[in-house]
Write a structure and sequence with these properties.
The termini are far apart. The chain has 2 helices and no strands. About 45% of the residues lie in helices and about 0% in strands. The protein has about 60 residues and is mainly α.
Length: about 60
Amino acid sequence: MERYQRILAEELLYARGFASEDARTAAIAVCNIHYNYHRSHSGASGQPPASRLQKGVTNVRPSYS
């Protein structure tokens, strides 16, 4: 959890400004999808955490436009 919070802060929250709290909340939602379904993780042999799921994932959205 601490690693996730550091990555969220470094790659999103401190990396840009937000016009509103709603914009920040929406950006965090997109970041969470990217982190869990698209971003490689060294602890998971370069795979995203969702790759470890037994069942197919049906709620995956594109991470960034």
